[in-house]
């Protein structure tokens, strides 16, 4: 039995902390060795101690410059959990060091960047898993299977509604937060492309959307507190004639978990993808969904050990999502929500009525402008 694969983590704060904790757990089981931690801001002392306590962890390299550290350590796998616009250059550095990739979502900030990365991964003879964790959901797989087998009859459409609460500080946490660009560099950060990226990707996945399909995308994007990107948005994506409507906000009055709704001729499904909870009925009766979720990093490790085990979220599977992201990028800055449609709650802006409006969009497969939503009905506002 050979030595366990050596894994580097680039980006140890924010969501990177989730990856760091996972690495410590898996290293503690002897499945990996932690080779390196890279971040402009070093990890805290407790995290370093936890890493060094794992088998082989005493030799972990901690640094600030990814190219230098990756070249020196040449890890088998590199996890990239950094701001969107840094994914591509860091992935290129990891590939140059001979590493396989685990890349957080969205994989890149542009569709052209995505295609460049896909070509480079293939040329390097490496694999790339993308961090769409919902793709590991047994409930999502079960829903997709019911649809594929025709147990809901003709699918009239898929809707997703999401109402989350974010403070103004959410958009002040970093220079890239809520930005479409930083200087000449695309960022494409917004509710549709980042906070609710799992919603978009899961809705496309449940329909079995092929990697090479060309999608139609209609967008209505607004911002109440985001500097440029959308924090309240509706998108209608057409997949082989089937409408997929994503209606979401970060400016709700009351937070609730997002729900994916499948409207079938002979049934209906509701998937709470953050909790892997599937309910509903088909022509055969009530749905009984399996529980559990495949860990994407462990799946990547299993695939590397045995290539007959497929990746759950390979890079190619993200291309439909990337078409939506590209449409958002081309659409540019979101429109400000008119002042008449805003109230405040504890100092944060709340879009009036949005909690129920996003739900109505998902139920009726409609955009904001097709409902009596208060903001599109107002006078046109500049971007």
Topology:
Elements: E1 6-10, H1 16-28, E2 33-38, H2 45-52, E3 61-63, H3 66-73, E4 77-80, H4 87-96, E5 100-103, H5 111-124, E6 128-130, H6 138-148, E7 155-165, E8 181-182, E9 185-186, H7 191-195, H8 197-206, E10 216-223, E11 232-239, E12 242-249, E13 251-264, E14 267-272, E15 277-282, E16 285-286, H9 296-305, H10 319-331, E17 335-336, E18 342-345, E19 348-351, H11 354-364, H12 374-377
Parallel strand pairs: 1-2, 1-4, 2-3, 4-5, 5-6, 7-12, 10-17
Antiparallel strand pairs: 7-13, 8-9, 10-11, 11-12, 13-14, 14-15, 15-16, 18-19
Helix pairs in contact: 3-4, 4-5
Using only CA atoms, what is the Rg? 21 Å
Q: Helical segment tally?
A: 12
Parts with pLDDT < 50 across at least 5 consecutive residues: none
Shape: globular
For the record, give the distance between the C-alpha atoms at the N and C termini, rounded to a whole number.
Answer: 59 Å
Characterise this structure.
It is a single chain. It is globular, with a radius of gyration of 21 Å. The longest helix has 14 residues, at 111-124. The chain is 31% helix and 27% strand. By secondary structure, it is an alpha/beta fold. It folds into 2 domains: 6-126, Rossmann fold, CATH 3.40.50.720; 150-290 and 341-377, Dihydrodipicolinate Reductase, domain 2 (2-Layer Sandwich), CATH 3.30.360.
């Amino acid at each position: 039995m050979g030595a366990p694969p050596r894994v580097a983590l680039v980006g140890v704060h924010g969501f990177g902390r989730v990856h760091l904790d996972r690495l410590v757990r898996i290293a503690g089981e002897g499945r990996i060795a932690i080779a390196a931690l890279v971040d402009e801001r070093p990890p805290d002392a407790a995290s370093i101690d936890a890493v060094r306590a794992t088998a082989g962890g005493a030799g972990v390299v901690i640094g600030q410059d990814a190219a230098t550290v990756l070249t020196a350590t040449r890890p088998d796998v590199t996890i990239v959990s950094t701001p969107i616009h840094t994914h591509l250059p860091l992935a290129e550095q990891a590939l140059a060091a001979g590493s396989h990739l685990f890349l957080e979502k969205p994989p890149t900030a542009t569709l052209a960047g995505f295609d460049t990365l896909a070509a480079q991964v293939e040329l390097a003879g490496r694999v790339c898993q993308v961090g769409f964790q919902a793709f590991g959901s047994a409930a999502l797989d079960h829903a997709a299977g019911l649809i594929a087998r025709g147990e809901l009859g003709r699918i009239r459409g898929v809707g997703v509604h999401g109402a989350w609460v974010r403070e103004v500080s959410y958009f002040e946490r970093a220079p890239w937060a809520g930005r479409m660009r930083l200087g000449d560099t695309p960022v494409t950060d917004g509710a549709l492309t980042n906070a609710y990226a799992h919603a978009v990707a899961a809705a496309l996945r449940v329909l079995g959307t092929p990697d090479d399909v060309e999608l139609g995308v209609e967008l209505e994007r607004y911002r109440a507190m985001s500097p440029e990107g959308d924090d309240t948005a509706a998108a209608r994506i057409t997949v082989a004639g089937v409408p997929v409507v994503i209606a979401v906000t970060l400016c709700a009055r009351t937070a609730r978990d997002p729900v994916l709704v499948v409207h079938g001729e002979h049934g209906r499904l509701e998937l709470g993808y953050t909790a892997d909870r599937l309910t509903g009925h088909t022509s055969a009766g009530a749905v009984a969904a399996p529980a559990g979720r495949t860990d994407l990093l462990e799946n990547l490790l299993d695939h590397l050990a045995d290539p007959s085990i497929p990746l759950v979220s390979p890079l190619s599977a993200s291309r439909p999502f990337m078409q939506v992201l590209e449409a958002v990028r081309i659409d540019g800055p979101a429109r400000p929500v008119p002042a008449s449609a805003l109230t405040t709650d504890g100092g944060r802006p709340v879009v009036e009525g949005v909690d129920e409006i996003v739900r109505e969009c998902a139920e009726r497969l409609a955009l904001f402008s097709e409902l009596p939503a208060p903001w599109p009905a107002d006078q046109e506002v500049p971007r």
